Model the fold of this input.
Amino acid sequence: MSIVFLLMQVLGDPVRRMLPIGTSEERVAELRTALGLDVPLWQQFWDFATGAFTGDFGQSLWLGTPAFPAAVSAIPHTLAIVVPACLIGVAAGGVVGLAAGRRQGSRFDRIVMGCNYVLISIAEFWLALVLVYLFAVQFGLVATSGYGLDFRHLALPILVLATHPFAHTAQVMRASVIQESAAAYVTTARARGLSESAIARRHVLPNAALPVAALAFYDLSRLFIAGTVVEVVFAWPGLGRLAVGALERGDIRLVEATVFLAAVIVCIFNLLGDLVAHRLDPRIRATSGR
Amino acid sequence: MSTGLLSALKKDRWMTCVAIVVLAILGWSIVGPFIVPDPNVVDLSRRLQPPGEGGLFGTDALGRSVAAQLTYGLRTSLVVAGITVVAGLALGVLAGLTAGYRMGWTDWAIMRMVDIQMSLPILLIAAAIMISTDGGIWVLVVILTLTSWMVYARVARTLAMRARSTDFVVATESLGASPRRVLFRHLVPNVLPSMTALASLEFARILLAEAGLSFLGFGVQPPSVSVGTMIAGGREYLVSAWWITTFPGLALALVVLSFNLLGSWAERMTSAASEAGVSLTQGKV
Done:
């Protein structure tokens, strides 16, 4: 059910409906004569709708090049920080969450939970600025901003973006481990004389990891958009920063292209999350009737 | 917040501390603007003074007091988030209850709208709307509300579907009550207490979202100050004047953390209570 719907999303229906209304009303009035946009709104909408299918959004006023290729070429830059951040955050969060869940109520568990709350409560752009001040300005370990596929440029953006997936995963993993540990199959395994670490590794972990795996994709789709502020702070030439630049300059063609692409990518990640959840857990398949 | 949750709050010493922090911040954002000087007074002879000589939190590039700006900025952020939470709660609860109570195609239509909104790049669309309307604070509130109602709608729908077959609803219906009467007189008061936790968590999330938008320049516009615009303003002076960005960020983190802690505590309490078969958040039926 949700898959069918998300597919409809990928085809861009709501975005096409929203964008001309959201972005163009006033700008179009201003730029109408300059751009030859004095055609009826429905015709612009039609052009936009057909353009979205063929990847033709017109010329970007800011860049002076076609908007769609410019937006597409920014995607790999965003993925270069978002994907590693998500992988690192989910992996680290999974390990920490597992350890915390196995020692529920211990000091370690309480510290982890406390840190999680602090991490999700800090604004990412502010954390980015603080880390720039500490590690780039004070210690000179990394670059303050700019693009480069090396440690100096990648470390801070990835670290900042990894905080929320980390906290999120640790929380879900912990809750999931606690829930699974109370299940009958764990008692059975214990009665069979398995060691606690073998139970955790072979029985609890595979089941507890299920919600985390799907969550990773939802986090990825969230990061793709939330990464915008981080890209702006680090002057990272990704899709989000391009969209912000286009918005500041009133470059409607580029705004349409970037927001359309962002919507498509967000939907793809959400769809992957749904697929992974269905694939890994037969129970969801059974309840949703495929 | 209902009386059940409040008395449980008093027993938990740690949570009482958090609640006191929240009350202190809310209190200061109401009283503070009457005490601190006008945050927009420019005094170039006092520019970029560090904390201490330049007041509690120092001064910014135009010699304005960071503490005074923070007082007004927090108030703006809290007011925006507060109105958004109330509006989103009202919209979401009504939509969710209608969907869950009516079922059928109404339910289908409302829940598809929820799905659509959940899978859109909200931040960018919000920024686009802010830019194209030259938006003021009210536009910001409307946009943030539209990003927030779905959460309540989902929960309210589940609760309504559970409630529609309970005795009191069936009894009211059989007495000839109209759907509207059932909805407003019985279902709304019944589900509102369960939304306490959700509203607190949403308050924290909206504070962060507003700060992010304002930081990018798509949120609160000058001369109004918000925490986000303050951090953006201090960015250029990160190296020479760390205090301009540090204190607003810390204050924001403290508020958001407090509401997150309160929200998830309330969530734990209500779910633990419902598992035990006790109603902490007693709804009036």
The radius of gyration of chain A is 23 Å.
